[in-house]
Amino acid sequence: MSLTPPQLTALRSLLDRIIPADDFPGALTAGTDTYVLRHLLGDCTEEAHALLLGLTQLDAETVACHGAHQTFATLLPTQQDALLADLAAARPMTPWPPQLPAAPWFHRLVELAHEGFYADPANGGNRDAASWGMLGYAPRTTPERAAP
User: Fold this and answer.
1) Which of 23, 28, 58, 132 can pair with 137 through a Cys bridge, CB separation 3.0 to 4.6 Å?
2) DSSP string across 28-78
3) What's the total number of domains in the chain?
4) 125 within a domain of the structure (yes/no)
5) What's the whole-model pTM score?
């Protein structure tokens, strides 16, 4: 299974709104999209179809709210936030498939974004341990040994 270019654009824009940059890197700078893509195309293949369908539905939702020439990625951040708040509150403008309710879909992507942003960098996200630095966490480089 693979993402279409519009799905990939929607995913990256969505992740950037879930964890936007401020004084610290946001989701994209920290490589959260890499983590989520690996998860969707690897460990999470059973739910990947529904999550990818939701990205397409996100753009359909955008068209219903903002007009035919819009995609989620082209909206202003405040418009994106308002649309996502409606989805999170289970108030979509368009009918979502029964097996893919809007609120659980969005909450699952929020969960994946957080996993990728705060995970061990070896898992594909948290590039340069960006979120760990934000939290002041410094992992040990060598394990401590108990005294004999």
Assistant:
1) 132
2) TTTTHHHHHHHHHHTTTHHHHHHHHHHHHHHHHHHHHHH-TT--GGGS-HH
3) 1
4) yes
5) 0.84
Q: 35-45 pLDDT, tens per residue?
A: 898 888 876 77
Parent domain of 129: 5-135
Chain segment 83-110, per-residue pLDDT in tens: 999 999 999 999 998 888 999 999 999 9
- Please, are residues 76 and 28 in contact by the beta-carbon 8 Å criterion? no
What's the chain's length in residues?
Answer: 148
Nearest to 19 by CA among 135, 132, 131, 136: 131
Residue 25 has pLDDT above 50, yes or no: yes
Query: Is 23 inside any structural domain?
Result: yes
3-state helix, strand, coil in the chain (%, to 5): 60, 0, 40
